[in-house]
């Protein structure tokens, strides 16, 4: 059990900023906002230009009698965004189409938190159960959550790829065209790419971390720790109340079932109260079934949503890590430029003074001595080397400027992205915990009705004293 001073979700801000005024006919839903021209906010605040509501439903097995069978889903939407040709686009898509959508959104929008998809490598794909109604419904629910996260994002909801995914009647043609002609200018490999790829590695750390992003990573750590603790606790609750297997006899549902059988057997022995005992036995069976039903309709979806939210947070962490890589690019390039400049200054000092480079440190002095032993201490070779260094310095200066501009732009985009993720996280927490609360209320109301129904029957048993 958690201590009183430990808050599992202490990084969640429960009071969302006030939503702007929207037209009365605008649909409502968790996490969806519609910005207007009069909205006030900082330069790093996200801006919504409209709403996009999406649903994934009606899974259908296609080509059922062939080895190429697959499941398609009806994807429908409701929107007022001008990029869409209709306010109610819809299309049928399969899982591979969702995979293509996500992979290309990751490439097209590297600074955005792209939500994860459900893992395809599951036991159902090996055992042949991926066409079972239970699996298809679970997959539909996960795809629906993925698309809702995309559709509530102010940048992704307006992307041409998402629009084509929702309304294109020639989706496969659009897929091939998108691969052949990706949006935006294709970056050319240059000095910055070659250097950063060489210098950057998993063990390098940012030397001058930004306090804003340090705080963000700390909040992410706390949030994920809370999710992990909740997942462990609710898995314990699930295993103790109902593990989904009525024959396991290792949970409360099995215990109540066994108790019902025992009470029913007692009814055969106590002929005077057989009917009340049978009613009591039936109530125990109903309560056992109610526990199992609550596990399937409330506990399991809650645990699935917890794990999905954890994977979503991992995607957010990846964006923060990518921003750190941009800063590492800038820091390493700056150090490289400083080293090349120092070498050029050393050569210049040697040429001007013809007396070594004692003023530039012991390392420069030793380098001069090594060059002298190799016969490379003549002025002509030094001048030629300085010329090459000047060219490299110019390239590095341009690369450092580009890296700095890239870092600033990516940092600003990351700040906006954190606000978007915060809105989405709060909305999903509200939805997830609200669903859990509703399920628990429904369970206890139904349980109270069952037990209150049996009380008058038990009270009618006459006991002679």
UniProtKB/TrEMBL annotation:
Main location: cytoplasm
Residue ranges with Polar residues bias: 23-41
InterPro entries reported in the protein's UniProt record: AH/BAR_dom_sf, PX_dom, PX_dom_sf
CDD domains, A to Z: BAR_Atg24p, PX_Atg24p
UniProt-annotated stretches for the region Disordered: 1-46
Domain of life assignment: Eukaryota
Domain PX: 51-173
Annotated compartments: Cytoplasm; Endosome membrane
Membrane disposition: Peripheral membrane protein
GO MF annotations in UniProt: phosphatidylinositol binding
BP-aspect Gene Ontology terms: autophagy of mitochondrion; endocytic recycling; piecemeal microautophagy of the nucleus; protein transport; reticulophagy
Gene3D superfamilies: Arfaptin homology (AH) domain/BAR domain, Phox-like domain
Keywords: Autophagy, Cytoplasm, Endosome, Lipid-binding, Membrane, Transport
Cited SUPFAM superfamilies: BAR/IMD domain-like, PX domain
Family according to the record: Belongs to the sorting nexin family.
Protein name in UniProt: Sorting nexin-4
Organism: Pleurotus eryngii (Boletus of the steppes)
